[in-house]
Amino acid sequence: MHTVWKGAISFGLVNVPVKMFSATEEKDIHMKYIHKKCITPLSYVRKCTTCDEEVAWEDITRGYEYEPGRFVLFEKDELDRLTEGATKEIKILDFVNLADIDPIYFQKTYYLAPNETGATAYNLLLAAMRDTGKIGIAKVSIRSKSSLAAIRIVDNCIAMETIFYPDEIRPVSQVPGLPERVSTTDKELEMAKMLIEQLSVPFEPEKYTDDYRHALVEAIQAKVAGEEVQAAPEQPRTNVIDLMAALQASLETMKPIAADTGKPDAGRKKAAAGEDRSAAAPGAKTKGKKGKAKETVS
């Protein structure tokens, strides 16, 4: 696993050095947008619609649109100053019961492993949380973003789940079309409860699979096996590669000249003069000192 963050868990005066690893991975199959006409993959281009030109990264800044078409701009150093007080610390503020947190708050899960010198403190926190059945509510800054987090035990590992702040959860009252009052008969309710009991089983996550992803993989493999493959045209070499090749070729041609004369400048002048003479064919026009065309005589 790739380490995504290093820091420490702190609760009270206890400090637990840890390394963070992403606990989940995206399994979605990503497809590219293709130009049907020539089967060329389409790429994202940072283009200014006003100037009608591509924009380099160094010419890009950030801005907040506080009114339609009106922005306040921020340079990177201004945004960095806002996080100067952030520390590499997962600071536990409170301990609560897991059942008290609605799943709507949970965002992304990370595994925490002890850093090189933190094994003893790590095991102490893990055992204490397991015995009390409590989870920690903490604050943490990751990639300049401040988050709330729940610190809990997953198997034999301390895990951190980033959670939304309360003002990031939309109130249910904003959902349109909800019935104001639920009206059911006793018989209907009893039958619904019986059906729930019949379908109730222990949670076994391995029994659930992404049917669409598996079907898509099979469809891709079938198309490849049936040679239903469209080849994209070969893309032209970029200017950077062409420039490097040209520079290398120029250096190679200059080496023997410099070796023969011992003076690279003189060699270049002689080579240039030789090329001018050889290029002047009978009847061809060349430029004199004042830039006027003159004819060469054979």
Automatic annotation (TrEMBL):
InterPro entries with a match to the protein in the record: DNA_bd_Ku70/Ku80 (IPR006164), Prok_Ku (IPR009187), SPOC-like_C_dom_sf (IPR016194)
Gene name of the encoded protein: ku
Annotated region described as Disordered, given as residue ranges: 257-298
Pfam hit, one: Ku
PANTHER family assigned to the protein according to its UniProt record, in alphabetical order: NON-HOMOLOGOUS END JOINING PROTEIN KU
Assembly with partners or alone: Homodimer. Interacts with LigD.
Described function: With LigD forms a non-homologous end joining (NHEJ) DNA repair enzyme, which repairs dsDNA breaks with reduced fidelity. Binds linear dsDNA with 5'- and 3'- overhangs but not closed circular dsDNA nor ssDNA. Recruits and stimulates the ligase activity of LigD.
Full protein name: Non-homologous end joining protein Ku
Family listed: Belongs to the prokaryotic Ku family.
